[in-house]
Amino acid sequence: MTQSRAMSFVEAATNVVVGYVLAIVTQIVVFPWFGIEAALGEHLAIGLAFVGISLTRSYVLRRLFETIRMRGTE
Known about the structure:
Blueprint: H1 5-30, H2 40-72
């Protein structure tokens, strides 16, 4: 059974959203330990800067592994 491109995107997007929320919480907790002060809006912007890259990375890797898996079943 193969994974459709749409489901690959849904999986990648879910991974990115969960990662984004975790990153924001982690930044809020960890930044002060290093003397870095940032407002909530700055935390959100920092996290958002990486969302596109993370989403693309997750999608491309999922499709790559799906291609490898399909070639292995031929």
